[in-house]
Specification:
The complex is a heterodimer of chains A (434) and B (302). Chain A is α/β, with parallel strands linked by helices and 434 residues long. Chain A is built from 18 helices and 16 strands. In chain A, strands 2-1-3-14-6-15 form a six-stranded mixed β-sheet. A four-stranded mixed β-sheet of chain A has the order 8-11-7-12. Chain A is globular and about 70 Å long. Chain B starts with 22 loop residues before the first helix and ends in a 14-residue tail after the last helix. Chain B is flat. Chain B has two domains: 64 residues; 209 residues, Orthogonal Bundle (MetI-like fold). Classes of the chains: A alpha/beta (434), B mainly alpha (302).
């Protein structure tokens, strides 16, 4: 049988553990966030921000701290969220009636919340002066059923980052900030930059749909067409142009690396820095990685967006919205006007290496940076950003996930033909847009 | 007695040692053992590699994180990632929150699961079978389906945005599996031990306290570890239920180093993740001694 001493020891420990558990839970109950009774004292606003880069995070926190110091009667609590889980977080918060007062998200994703009535219409809450600094085309991206439910403030354009030494060695001149290459020139230059073990381009196409649909606007490719209230997917020559050109670079001229197909933008950086790829088509925010991670002596340049019949790209700006359930919508709008004034918007854009939507903020940013590190190109690319049809389609996320992404991945892996790609995209549209 | 030329003076045959065991099987055994160790070593390397890579990444400066041919040992090791991880996300406070929540969850799970599992294992009724079935069935419900009702209930009870609310959810979430696991341990304790204690004059409570609980220690430890790790790693409930930044747990704090479309700030993320593994490793180290089984061997003869 068991030793009596041991048994007592075990019993004592179990009793202690039980006691600790009960006491612990009691103590934890005291670790509550508490609720804001709102009966007296300053107005409290909760601001869910998705800033995550070091500089951007600091810029956000600094602006909130400055606001709080200058406005003792309206205090903003900064809460950091993350891009990967913000949708579920917001959905739960809206359904549960405990949403943050101010929400940071993106134009393509707030439509769903707008249509469910979770976001306040800001059109009457913001001043005309404030509204005037952003182009109407950009406001359209955050306007749903006539209601403006987000303030677009940061834009992301698609540019080309290139290895300057390789361009020089191949005799490829860097175009000016306001005049990028055409697709034909881009492809011809990629050919010049391709050699044994080296590729002119690395197309990071792990998630190809957004990128293809963005660039398709270069050739006026809309993909989604609405007639008489009915939306459908159509694939004509305009829609086929960008996928066909990328495919040609992969398997025709072999100027694009097939191994980059499964990569995200950041995954291509080791190969780019090692000189394996000469050009990276990607987000304007890739410049940050260049500054932070490029090896010493590495020279890079930002090449303006490539042009087809136009340099148009889809604008999916980051937005700031106010929850419809917020008791302090007016104060929240007041904070937004402060937070996104030209100087502050420029600071936020600089922190995220993105393009500010405000014209004045854009000018201020170019002035402050001297246009270096691609800021001149970034600023200039803003004028070609516009709302794309796919951004206004309710079933787009489902179509993208279930049909477009797998079909494009198969096409770029050379497993299906361009016509088969078109058929799959149209059929997917029929399933989703019924 | 004749001796064939295969037989040596000591009576053993060629390829056979004195104990009569042939050398070839012995050699084969030795080779087999060697291969076993080799396979084990390969498995250990396989298991340890992510942790080793995490350590390596956490000490690398940004340019070394994007090399085409990365090195295991950083050329210019830096503590910058740790400094960033701590200053930007207050990982210390998040870790303390996680420790409190996970320990409380583990303790409460064990406290509730122990008597319940004993009852399920010893008192065989139809209700017990139904209860076990329900317990297993409850594991099929996805998080997303439950989160909004749970949030509303907790809010009504004043437990939303509190660690107590989080602990409550974690305990409820861990209990079904804990019950199922623990009642297996209870079943393995021979009834004869309880009968013997009864014959010696012990009442049921004394039997439980002095006979069952000590023998159940490995099961209790396994249950506590399961509940602790579940709570330690849980992300979604913590994200949704906790609104106040000061109350955030580690997984939520670490997720903030991940950006759009899977891009991440690898250095600070690796540094934070490395620090996040330490408390669970310590908890394992403390508890694993208690996991030793086989204490019942020979307890009942015949």
């Amino acid at each position: 049988m068991l030793d009596r001493v041991n048994r007592r020891r075990v019993t004592r420990r179990l009793a202690a553990a039980a006691l600790a558990g009960v006491v612990g839970l009691g103590a934890l109950a005291a670790c509550g966030g508490g609720s804001d009774d709102g009966s007296s004292g300053p107005v409290k606003l909760r601001f869910l921000s998705l800033a995550w880069q070091k500089e951007s995070l600091q810029a956000n926190k600094d602006l909130v701290a400055k606001w709080n110091a200058e406005h003792p009667d309206i205090q903003v609590e900064y809460v950091q969220g993350d891009w990967n889980s913000v949708h579920d977080q917001l959905l739960t918060a809206f359904e549960g009636g405990d949403a943050p007062d101010i929400v940071h998200y993106e134009a393509a994703s707030i439509g769903e919340f707008s249509k469910q009535g979770y976001l306040a219409d800001l059109s009457g809450l913001l001043s005309d002066d404030f509204k005037g600094q952003i182009d109407k085309g950009i406001w359209d991206t955050a306007t749903f059923d006539g209601k403006v439910t987000g303030v677009p403030f940061l834009l992301e354009s698609q540019v080309v980052i290139a290895n300057k030494k390789l361009l020089d060695a191949a005799g490829v001149a860097v175009p000016p900030a306001d005049g990028g290459w055409t697709w034909d020139e881009f492809q011809a230059n990629a050919q010049k930059l391709t050699g044994p073990g080296k590729y002119g381009v690395a197309w990071a196409l792990k998630s190809p749909t957004n990128r293809v649909l963005n660039l398709a606007l270069n050739f006026d490719g809309k993909y989604f067409y609405t007639d008489g209230g009915r939306t459908e997917v159509r694939i004509g020559d305009a829609e086929k142009e960008v996928p066909k050109r990328i495919h040609d670079m992969l398997y025709g001229s072999k100027t694009a690396s097939p191994e980059a197909l499964g990569m995200s933008g950041a995954d291509t950086l080791p190969g780019f820095f090692a000189g394996k790829y000469a050009m990276l088509p990607g987000s304007v925010s890739l410049r940050q990685q260049m500054v932070e991670q490029a090896p010493a002596g590495f020279e890079w340049v930002t090449i303006p967006p490539v042009k087809g019949v136009s340099a148009n790209q889809a604008a999916n700006p980051q937005t700031l919205s106010v929850a419809a359930e917020s008791e302090h919508q007016k104060q929240a709008a007041q904070f937004l006007e402060y937070f996104l004034n030209p100087a502050n918007m420029a600071a936020l854009a600089k922190g995220d290496w993105l393009v500010p939507t405000g014209k004045q903020a854009n000018e201020e940013l170019v002035r402050a940076t001297g246009g270096k590190q691609g800021w001149d190109v970034a600023a200039d690319s803003a004028r070609d950003l516009t709302v794309a049809p796919f951004q206004m389609v309710d079933g787009y996320p489902e179509w993208k996930l279930k049909y477009a992404t797998p079909a494009l991945q198969q096409y770029f892996a050379n497993k299906i033909t361009l016509d088969q790609l078109g058929t799959q995209l149209v059929d997917g549209g029929k399933q989703v847009l019924r | 007695m004749t001796r064939t030329d295969m037989t040596r003076v000591d009576g053993t045959r060629r390829g056979q040692n004195r104990s009569g065991v042939t050398r070839r099987p012995q050699r084969r055994r030795r080779v087999g053992r060697g291969l076993q160790y080799l396979a084990l070593s390969a498995y250990l390397v396989f298991l340890a590699f992510p942790l080793v890579w995490l350590v390596s990444t956490s000490f690398k400066p940004p340019p070394e994180l994007v090399r085409l041919h990365p090195t295991l040992i950083p050329d210019n090791p830096t503590l910058g990632n740790f400094v960033q991880a701590f200053t930007e996300q207050e990982l210390g406070r998040a870790a303390w929150n996680s420790i409190q929540v996970s320990l409380a969850s583990a303790l409460l799970t064990v406290l509730i699961a122990t008597p319940a599992s004993y009852a399920l294992a010893r008192f065989r009724t139809r209700l017990g079978t139904v209860a076990l079935g329900w317990v297993l069935l409850s594991q099929l419900f996805p998080f997303v389906l439950l989160i909004i009702p749970i949030f509303l209930v907790l809010r009504q009870a004043g437990l939303a945005n509190t660690h107590a609310g989080l602990v409550l959810i974690y305990v409820v979430w861990a209990l079904p599996f804990a019950l199922w696991m623990l009642q297996g341990f209870v079943r393995n304790i021979p009834r004869e031990l309880e009968e013997a204690a009864s014959v010696d004059g012990a009442n049921r409570l004394q039997t439980l306290r002095r006979v069952i609980f000590p023998l159940l220690t490995p099961g209790l430890v396994a249950t506590a570890l399961f509940a602790f790790i579940s709570a330690w790693n849980e992300f979604f409930f913590a994200l949704v239920l906790i609104k106040t930044p000061e109350l955030a747990t580690l997984p939520v704090a670490l997720a903030r180093f991940v950006g759009i479309e899977g891009t991440a700030r690898l250095g600070p993320l690796a540094a934070g993740s490395l620090l996040a593994t330490i408390p669970s490793l310590v908890f394992f180290a403390v508890m694993q001694r208690r996991l030793a089984s086989g204490s019942l061997a020979g307890a009942v003869k015949g």
